[in-house]
C-alpha cells in the first residue's frame, strides 16, 4: 500500500472528523458497545484544532483520501477533541513533563497496514527532537496492542464518562526515550 504522511491543515478538519467517526465505528466494536462508541464520538473523539495549528498533527494520505491520522502535543491536554470539556492548552516543560501522543485513528479498510505505526514513529521523532524525555497517551482498548508493540507500558484501566451514564474503558500508557 502506498501512502504519504503530511502535516494536517485546517482544510482537512471535515475529512479528519469523518475519518475519526468511521474508525471508531468500524474498529472498536470488539471492545465497546454501539452506545459507548456513539457517546465517545459525541463527547471526546474528535479533531483538536490546537494540534493542527501547532503543526504536530499528521494525516496519512492515499491519493487524496485520508486513511489515518494522529499526532503529538506539547500541550497539557492528554486527549479529546475540541468538543471535550476537560482541556488545558498550557504548554508542557520538556525537561520535566511528557509529550502527549494524541488522537490516532485509521480507516477500517486500511487497518493493520502500518499506517498508525508510521505516524507514531514520526510523532516520537519530532517529540524527541523537541527535547522531550518521555511520552504519555490515553489509549482506547483497541489501540493497546499497537502501543505495547511500540514499547509503551500500560497502567491500570480507567473509565471515562461519555454521557448519559455511559463510560468507556481507556488505558494510560507511557514510554521513556532511551
Principal-axis shape = globular
Question: How big is the Rg?
Answer: 15 Å
Any idea of the CATH class? Alpha Beta
Helix content: 25-40%
- State the low-pLDDT regions, or none: none
Largest sheet: 8 strands, mixed
According to CATH, the homologous superfamily is Gcn5-related N-acetyltransferase (GNAT)
Provide the structure class: alpha+beta
Kindly state the number of beta strands. Answer: 8
Q: Summarize model confidence as the mean pLDDT.
A: 95
Q: How many individual domains? A: 1
Termini Cα gap: 31 Å
Q: Could you name the CATH topology?
A: Aminopeptidase
- What fraction strand? 25-35%
What does this structure look like?
It is a single chain. This protein is an alpha+beta fold and 178 residues long. It has a single domain, classed as 3-Layer(aba) Sandwich (Aminopeptidase). The chain has 5 helices and 8 strands; from the N terminus they run βαααβββαβαβββ. Strands 1, 2, 3, 4, 5, 6, 7 and 8 form an 8-stranded mixed beta sheet that branches. Helix 1 runs antiparallel to helix 2. It is globular and about 40 Å long.
Question: How would you describe this structure in keywords?
Answer:
single chain; 178 residues; alpha+beta; eight-stranded mixed β-sheet; 29% helix
Q: How would the blueprint of this fold be written?
A:
Layout: E1 4-7, H1 13-27, H2 34-43, H3 49-54, E2 57-62, E3 65-73, E4 99-106, H4 115-129, E5 134-140, H5 144-149, E6 153-154, E7 158-161, E8 167-176
Parallel strand pairs: 4-5
Antiparallel strand pairs: 1-2, 2-3, 3-4, 5-8, 6-8, 7-8
Helix pairs in contact: 1-2
Amino acid at each position: 500500500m502506498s501512502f504519504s504522511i503530511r502535516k494536517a491543515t485546517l482544510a482537512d478538519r471535515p475529512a479528519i472528523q469523518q475519518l475519526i467517526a468511521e474508525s471508531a465505528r468500524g474498529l472498536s466494536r470488539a471492545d465497546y458497545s454501539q452506545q459507548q462508541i456513539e457517546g465517545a464520538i459525541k463527547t471526546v473523539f474528535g479533531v483538536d484544532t490546537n494540534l493542527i495549528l501547532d503543526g504536530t498533527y499528521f494525516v496519512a494520505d492515499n491519493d487524496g483520501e485520508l486513511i489515518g491520522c494522529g499526532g503529538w502535543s506539547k500541550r497539557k491536554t492528554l486527549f479529546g477533541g475540541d468538543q471535550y470539556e476537560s482541556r488545558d492548552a498550557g504548554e508542557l516543560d520538556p525537561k520535566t513533563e511528557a509529550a502527549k501522543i494524541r488522537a490516532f485513528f485509521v480507516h477500517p479498510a486500511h487497518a493493520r497496514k502500518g499506517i498508525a505505526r508510521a505516524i507514531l514513529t514520526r510523532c516520537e521523532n519530532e517529540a524527541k527532537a523537541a527535547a522531550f524525555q518521555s511520552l504519555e497517551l490515553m489509549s482506547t482498548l483497541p489501540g493497546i496492542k499497537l502501543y505495547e508493540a511500540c514499547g509503551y507500558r500500560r497502567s491500570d484501566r480507567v473509565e471515562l464518562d461519555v454521557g448519559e451514564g455511559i463510560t468507556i474503558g481507556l488505558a494510560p500508557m507511557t514510554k521513556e526515550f532511551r
